[in-house]
Write a structure and sequence with these properties.
The chain has 255 residues and is of the alpha/beta class. The chain contains nine helices and eight strands. Helix content is 37%, strand content 16%. Strands 1-2-3-4-5-6-7-8 form an eight-stranded parallel beta sheet. It is globular, with a radius of gyration of 17 Å.
Length: 255
């Protein structure tokens, strides 16, 4: 089944120790370079993906631009930037394939949430980027008015918690994208979450491997992919595995 659907992997990390890594709460990840990623994904019909900056990569752009160069223009990047970043740097990264700024509320390593609204508006205006949040859905209640006002947003790992899932579903109904990633990180039944979010908005869900599954209770399994296909059925799976994310990230488009 792994080769049955085109896969645009909406969330994965490249960890290359040639470039700076910053210890996060005492944690440094093992290496997982682009060659290892491509080898792991060889059984799939991989048509592109999203390289996401982790907490341990802070504001470094060198690893990301190197990864995008080597993976090719069907891959895009989600980076972390300080609020002081120049317009010129945003446009430079955009030309190299970066499509979003990440705010890591769960682990840190990114800009403060105090800058979320201003940065979201700025990067959207300059380069049509969205903001990506690694946030526990139990914390969404206080953020809801802010999130609903942002121009373009995605949320990682199905929001992690059952306690805030109803609000996450409401956000999906209003156009916020949700990544079907990191299944071992959540505290609820994956099948129910997939069905609820797809029903709320068929365009919202985007599947990703979350490789190499840094700090996850269990690493990514091929069974995660199979679970999505069997839960949603063929037509929905095609959207969740590739169409939704390709429409959102627009890989290979020269600006």
């Amino acid at each position: 089944m792994l080769n049955e659907y085109p896969l645009f992997d909406s969330h994965m990390h490249i960890i290359d120790k040639r470039f700076p890594l910053v210890s996060n709460n005492g944690y440094l990840p093992p290496e997982f370079d682009y060659n290892e990623y491509l080898k792991r994904m060889a059984p799939y019909q991989l048509c592109g993906g999203v390289v996401v900056s982790g907490s341990f990569q802070a504001f470094d752009q060198h690893y990301l631009t190197d990864a995008l160069k080597n993976l090719g223009n069907t891959f895009v990047g989600v980076t972390q930037l300080p609020a002081s970043v120049s317009d010129e740097e945003i446009l430079r990264l955009d030309k190299l394939g970066v499509r979003a700024v990440r705010f890591n509320l769960k682990r840190g390593g990114s800009e403060s949430i105090a800058h979320l609204s201003s940065m979201a508006a700025r990067v959207y205006e300059i380069a049509n980027w969205h903001v990506e949040l690694y946030v526990d859905s139990r914390d969404i209640k206080d953020l809801y008015p802010t999130l609903i006002a942002l121009p373009s947003v995605s949320i990682d790992h199905l929001g992690l918690s059952q306690s805030g899932f109803s609000l996450l579903t409401q956000l999906a109904e209003k156009g916020v994208r949700v990544k079907a990633t990191g299944f071992s990180r959540v505290d609820f039944k994956i099948e129910n979450a997939l069905k609820s979010l797809y029903l709320a908005n068929p365009e919202a869900l985007m599947f990703g491997s979350d490789l190499p599954s840094t700090r996850a209770p269990s690493p990514y399994s091929n069974n995660d992919f199979v679970l999505v296909a069997e839960t949603l059925g063929k037509d929905a799976a095609i959207k969740v595995f590739s169409k939704n994310a390709i429409a959102f990230y627009k890989p290979g488009i020269s600006k």
